[in-house]
Amino acid sequence: MFDPETEIQLLIKVGLILLLGFLVGIERGWSFQKKKEAHQTAGIRTFTLIALSGGLWGILSEYIGQVLLSVALIGFVVIIMVGYYQHAQLTGSVGLTTEMAAFVTFAIGIAVIKGLVILSVTTTIVMVLTLSVKPELHKWVKTIEPNELYSGILFLLISAVVLPLLPNRGYGPWNVLNPFELWSMVVLIAGISYVGYFSMKYLRSHKGILFTAFTGSLVSSIAVTVTLGRFAREGKATPLLQTGVLIATFTALGRVLFWVVIFNSQLLYKVGASVFFMLITTLGLALWTWFNSEKSQKSRKLTLRNPLQLSTALQFGLALALVMLLSEASNQWFGDPGIYGLSFISGMVDIDSITLSLLKMGGNELSQPIAGNAIVLASISNTLVKGAIFAIFTGVKSAWRLMMFCVIIIATGIPAFFIF
């Protein structure tokens, strides 16, 4: 029975199908411009018709049955195989890229009819991008070294295989040790290390370190510090990497103020008075260190050997477990005064979780002044430990300037801590 509303919806979907097929066809037609006519296969018209064909078979399957759709799919595969064989015989080319693109385009037409619009559009965009960057991908593959490939496989193993298998619940004293959370930090540090390695390889040292420090510290500034400390031990570009640590510190302190504004703005007066001065000081020192590292010829060359040093991440995971035990012990054994010890120790590994917890407790389980002081203490310990971590990797002699900067940053926040 004729239903105008249904017909209009189908026409809209068919229009989207035509557009998606047209986009894939444009890319394929563009890629064939430099080829001889005999070597050219499917272009704009062909891919538009392929998408439309998939959409129409999807519509017919709603009325005739899914078996027909299966038959149509098999028939389309046969057509693709015959076309591929003839093209290979004529040109000697054995590439399957265009044939696979045609198969995916046919499936996209069906998916749109089935209501999977977002998936269809996303798939088309990803496919077009993948097809269009063929020369760049081939150049990039040639630059991949065996150790980089093996490190990538190892990272996939610890993140996509091991992590999902770990239990996500507490064990040990006070049930404070969560295997899933601890291994997540190991994966995070390994991931930042891997991304940092390639960002410095392809963006050059200065830009790569800025990218790694800022993006990584959006998740964990301590993890970034561990990664940059390991890079400094390998590459000896200490001033440049110290800039990255200061950027991570700036981002962490900025997040503290952001959480306060969002979740408990009543503490802004108490917390902001100290953290704001620390934030400004960190920015100034980061800029000063950056400009000085620009003048250093040695800091321009940073050569890293190992993209993924899992041992470093594992060592930090063990340290994190110990700190978590000490934090909870401080809270359990000393009560409210232990909140300060809990904040100081927790800030050494994760400033966000302790900050969010204190903001939630402020005005309820804790008084506002105690909660505010505890957040400032967490910010101080989070800043202080970065200098210590860097020194562990590079030695005090190489890290003394960063350690001094951390003390200066903390010093600018202490007066407001006692006044307000």
Architecture overview:
- With 420 residues, this protein is an all-alpha fold.
- It folds into 2 domains: 4-139, no CATH class; 144-419, no CATH class.
- Helix content is 81%, strand content 0%.
- Helix 2 (44-64) packs antiparallel against helix 3 and helix 8 (179-217) crosses helix 12 (310-334).
- The longest helix has 39 residues, at 179-217.
- The protein starts with a helix and ends with a helix.
- The mean pLDDT is 79.
Short characterization:
By secondary structure, the chain is mainly α. The chain has 16 helices and no strands. The model has no long low-confidence stretch (mean pLDDT 79).
SSE order and pairing:
Layout: H1 4-31, H2 44-64, H3 66-91, H4 97-113, H5 117-132, H6 134-143, H7 146-165, H8 179-217, H9 221-235, H10 238-263, H11 268-295, H12 310-334, H13 338-346, H14 351-361, H15 368-394, H16 396-419
Helix pairs in contact: 1-2, 1-4, 1-5, 2-3, 2-4, 3-4, 4-5, 7-8, 8-9, 8-10, 8-12, 9-10, 9-15, 10-11, 10-14, 10-15, 11-15, 11-16, 12-13, 13-15, 14-15, 15-16
